[in-house]
Write a structure and sequence with these properties.
- There is one protein chain.
- The protein is mostly helical and 485 residues long.
- The chain has one domain: MFS general substrate transporter like domains (Growth Hormone, Chain: A, Up-down Bundle).
- 74% of the residues lie in helices and 3% in strands.
- It has 21 helices and four strands.
- The strands form two sheets. It has a two-stranded antiparallel ribbon. Strands 3-4 form a two-stranded antiparallel ribbon.
- A hairpin with a 5-residue loop joins strand 3 and strand 4.
- Helix 6 runs antiparallel to helix 15 and helix 12 packs parallel to helix 19.
- The radius of gyration is 22 Å and the shape is globular.
């Protein structure tokens, strides 16, 4: 018998995946834009270290809530309506944050933006996975991370340009408003673009089948995803969805520890992605590099360079993910993070603490440690960007069965944002203890992430979404035991 030809890959599926990934762009922009504004707003609102840290991380509370409810909304309303809701939240947050008259309303508007980020973090990987052919799903799903790091880059670049134009983020720029306010309001442009693009996207075929709209699902599969046997795919989707009923949060329950093993894998993947400390580099990078001797303009430039590096390595990950596989890349990334974070901890152990007249203290690094710290920070970004950055989103979008995907992804994403909140909120306190302690803490979790992937994570390269089952963890454990025997 002749082997059936693989589904064709057309430009239309790439186009809709790029459009869906714009949510990731806003995700990255919104979380990084405060990087260039944090020092200026801290001075303007006379914030202490604790409140300053909370102002930075407050959006993450909204991310948790947005991620948690996005799964249920996606199952009830569809994937596209959730994208539109996220776009409106991004727009409201950008304008509100830019016009904030005090730290309280700034925090409120940052939380509103966080709701959009949380929703986008769930809906984009789910949608992209559900419209992508299995053989290139890793590449298309990695567009989410490419969009995130591009959003980070554009946010940092716009921060640097606005601060440079005004002379400082704290100086007035246009219409009598400080540059840091325009940093937030710049997000309105991509928010509007995202909303307009979402209106032109087809609904997910998996959602359409779940709603009984088989004809529409068939048309999407035929026109966009390149399926050659649409009827067979529809039947596979029907079978994988299980009973004809509304998906519920209770579907995630399992016999051990309250949740299905595959859901726990998603939660732990999300937590490890954050506990290695990647967002400290982006949230506090300007402040970090200023504390070790760089001027504000130099620190912003270094941050932008770091962000460009992240984009380049994410593109490398896109080229490799469907060739090499998910597990080998995660393991290599963890190893690189352990080494780079460990060396950063050693570098800052050699810092000199300088106390200012106002009682504040900063760390100063002399050569060669300043160079070592800078190089290791970028090596860390490379190791993360080529592995844990994109591949966690790939896995979260594809590893869960159709019958629980939206809710499972929502729970995993909520866990990720809670972890992000913990890491970003505790960094100022960790830094007061010492940057050696902070980076040593992240290095330990990088080592644990290596062990976790080695022992627990199954390979999903090339598998159809309909082949993802709750028993994948059990299957992997069985194969490992047989190999040991």
């Amino acid at each position: 018998m002749e082997a059936s030809a693989p589904p064709r890959l057309n430009a239309r599926v790439i186009g809709i995946c790029i459009a869906a990934a714009l949510g990731g762009f806003l995700f990255g922009f919104d979380t990084a834009v405060i990087n260039g504004a944090v020092d200026a707003l801290t001075d303007q609102f006379s914030l202490g270290a604790g409140l300053s840290g909370f102002a930075v991380s407050s959006a993450l509370l909204g991310c948790v809530v947005g991620a948690w409810f996005a799964g249920g909304l996606a199952n009830k309303l569809g994937r596209i309506p959730v994208m539109l809701i996220a776009a409106v939240l991004f727009l409201m947050s950008s304008i509100g944050s830019g016009l904030a008259f005090g730290v309280i309303d700034l925090i409120v508007w940052r939380v509103v933006g966080g709701l959009g980020v949380g929703a986008a973090s769930v809906i984009a990987p789910a949608y992209i996975a559900e419209v992508s052919p299995a053989r290139v799903r890793g590449r298309l799903a990695s567009l989410q991370q490419l969009a995130i790091v591009t959003g980070i880059f554009v946010a940092l670049l716009s921060d640097a340009w606005l601060a440079s134009s005004a002379g400082s983020a704290a100086n007035e720029l246009w219409l009598g408003r400080e540059a840091w306010r325009w940093m937030f309001m710049a997000e309105a442009v991509p928010a509007i673009v995202y909303g307009v693009m979402a209106l032109r996207l087809p609904e997910s075929p998996r959602f359409l089948v779940a709603r009984g709209k088989v004809d529409k699902a068939s048309q999407v599969l035929l026109d966009f995803t390149g399926e050659t046997d649409v009827n067979l795919k529809i039947e596979q989707i029907r079978t994988s969805l299980g009973e004809e009923r509304q998906q519920r949060l209770g579907d995630l329950r399992g016999r051990r520890l309250g949740l299905k093993p595959i859901v726990w894998l998603g939660i732990l993947l999300s937590m490890f992605q954050q506990f290695v400390g990647i967002n400290v580099i982006f949230y506090y990078s300007t402040t970090l590099w200023r504390s070790v001797g760089f001027e504000e303009s130099d620190a912003l430039t270094i941050t932008v360079i770091t962000s460009v590096t992240n984009i380049v390595v994410t593109i490398v990950a896109i080229l490799l993910v469907d060739r090499v596989g998910r597990r080998p890349m995660l393991l290599a990334g963890s190893a690189g993070m352990v080494v780079s974070l460990g060396l950063m901890a050693v570098a800052f152990a050699n810092a000199t603490i300088v106390t200012a007249d106002d009682g504040s203290s900063t760390a100063e690094l002399a050569a060669p440690w300043s160079t070592i710290a800078l190089v290791c920070a970028n090596v860390f970004v490379i190791a993360f960007g080529v592995s844990w950055g994109p591949l966690v989103w790939v896995l979260l979008g594809e590893m869960f069965p159709n019958s629980i995907r939206a809710w499972a992804l929502a729970v995993a994403a909520a866990a990720q944002w809670l972890s992000n909140f913990f890491i970003s909120t505790t960094f100022p306190a960790f830094a007061e203890i010492g940057l050696t302690f902070a980076y040593g803490f992240y290095a330990v979790f990088a080592l644990l992430s290596f062990v976790f992937v080695l022992l627990k994570i199954p390979e999903t390269k090339g598998k159809e979404l309909e082949d993802m089952t709750d028993e994948m963890v059990v299957e992997r454990r069985g194969r490992r035991s047989a190999a040991t025997t």
